[in-house]
Amino acid sequence: MSMESHRGVWIFLEQNHGEMAPVSWELAGAGRRIADKLDTELAGVLLGDNVEDLAKQAFAYGFDKVYLVEDGALKDYRNIPYTKAVSMLVEKYKPEIFLLGATTMGRDLAGAVATEVQTGLTADCTELEVEEDTRLLHAVRPTFGGKLMATIICDVLRPQMATVRPRVMAAPEQQEGRTGEIIREALPMKEEDIVVKVLGYIQENVKTANLDEAEIIVAGGKGIGEAKNFKLVEDLAEVLGGTVAASRAAVDAGWIGHEYQVGQTGVTVRPKIYIAIGISGAIQHLVGMQTSEVIIAINKDPEAPIFKTATYGIVGDLQEIVPALTEELRKRLAGESTTEGVEVASN
User: Fold this and answer.
1) Residue 206: inside a domain
2) Would you call the peptide bond into 159 cis, given omega within 30 degrees of 0 as the criterion?
3) Largest Cα–Cα separation, the chain
């Protein structure tokens, strides 16, 4: 699609049986900022069955419009009807930028829509910027195994499409009472035209660390030395009421399960406190935790890259520091501490 006739920033409002995926609201902040820079509108795309209430919620997050397609055939996610409906909206209303969450659904849908409307797609982004004069979206994502950050543009075709990792952006505050326009469209196909049928759901008992929901995370890396030293990480997490996590190097070493991995090939987190123990701070790990509110790094190497991202840094032997920190916190929480204070470096 050519560029001149395309205007507007769109975000796919991903819902599953009436529950909105948090990444949709997280994208609202970036979408609003980009739309304001380009002096254009921010619109949501919402598909489902009886989901109009979610469209009204979107206005509180800064959306000006919501394109709504409701149909019984859209109750469950299936690629064929969702691709048909979204592609129809794109071709009719011609957005300039279209953003989706890099979720299981978002990744599946984005590639199909980009193929259908014949435009470019940047997958799994961690940052978004836009040039006001050229109106080009700068989509930033890790590449070469996470060793580099690449900025990708789509300078000819429209819309410019990107999927964005959950938890890398903060959802904006809701603006109560804000309203907008709902534009209703019909699904351009019937149930009998859809070859894939949903017969039911099987609930799997998959072990998960729920890292993306944790407010306090204590993560261990290759620098802890060996598997048994994860007891130090676990003890500190227990005292703080936090969740244990790990870097890829620790997971690859077999010291802990993949469900605890933070980073490019693991989970993206955004806790209030992230404590990195024996983690050097490679890009592939940083992209998964760098938006944490407070980052505390403990590492014996004063030149470790993690200290450039950390809010507070402690240089020293983690075998001495972590047990002492755990015991001091345990005493303080029990009201027994007599320690005056601890000094650490702060960025």
Assistant:
1) no
2) yes
3) 73
50 and 179 inside one domain: yes
Statement: residue 287 has pLDDT above 50: yes
Task: Report pLDDT for 341.
Answer: 46
- In sequence order, the β-bridge partners of residue 125 are 164
DSSP for 88-140, written as a single string: HHHHHH--SEEEEE-SHHHHHHHHHHHHHHT--EEEEESEEEE-TTT--EEEE
Q: Where are the beta strands (DSSP E) in the chain?
A: 9-13, 15-16, 19-20, 42-48, 65-70, 97-101, 121-125, 127-130, 137-143, 148-152, 160-164, 181-185, 216-220, 243-246, 273-277, 294-299, 312-315, 345-346
Q: What is the pLDDT of residue 336?
A: 58
Q: Which two tokens stand for residue 335?
A: 């009201």
Residue 200 lies in a domain: no
- Residues 183 and 277 both lie in one domain: no
Q: Which of 209, 200, 256 is nearest to 233 (CA)?
A: 256
Are 189 and 274 members of one domain? Answer: no
Range of the domain at 323: 211-346
189 DSSP 8-state letter:
S
CA distances from 344 to 274, 296, 299, 310 (A): 16, 10, 12, 11
Tell me the whole-structure pTM to 2 decimals: 0.76
Q: Rounded to an integer, what distance in angstroms lies between the CA atom of residue 314 and that of residue 133?
A: 44
Asked whether 168 and 175 are in contact (CB, 8 A), the reply is no
62, 29 Cβ separation under 8 angstroms: yes
Rounded-to-integer distance, Cα 43 and Cα 40, Å: 10
What is the pLDDT at residue 81?
Answer: 95
Domain count, the chain: 2
**Are the C-beta atoms of residues 110 and 86 closer than 8 Å to each other?**
no
Whether residue 204 is contained in a domain is answered as: no
